[in-house]
Design brief:
alpha+beta; three-stranded antiparallel sheet; 3 strands; 12% helix
Length: 97
């Protein structure tokens, strides 16, 4: 399969930010949200009542996404490496490739 450049996956209407990236996630109560800003990441932390821990969404900016060895390079490199993942057709005949 041809390698898909990471830049092809970006929404042209929302390019990577030069400062801290915008936040576009959606959630509903009773989930609680807090933010933290570190090392060019906007970190959205979701706390779910009754569950120990939570979910953190690290939203990178242009500097992080395009740095050598960063997310763009990792995405493209993973397309060249066999890490044991494969697509399979579901039992009902739907999905897969």
């Amino acid at each position: 399969m041809p390698v898909i450049p990471a830049s092809f996956l970006r929404n042209p209407f929302f390019p990577p930010a030069l400062g801290y990236s915008l936040y576009r996630d959606q959630f509903k109560a009773p989930v609680q949200l807090s933010f933290e800003f570190k090392h060019n990441y906007r970190i959205a932390r979701y706390t779910i009542p009754g569950i120990e821990g939570g979910v953190s969404h690290f939203i990178a900016n242009k500097a992080v996404v395009e740095e050598p060895g960063g997310p763009d390079d990792m995405f493209e490199e993973l397309q060249h490496v066999d890490i044991g993942l494969e697509r399979r057709r579901m039992e009902n005949g739907q999905g897969g490739f």
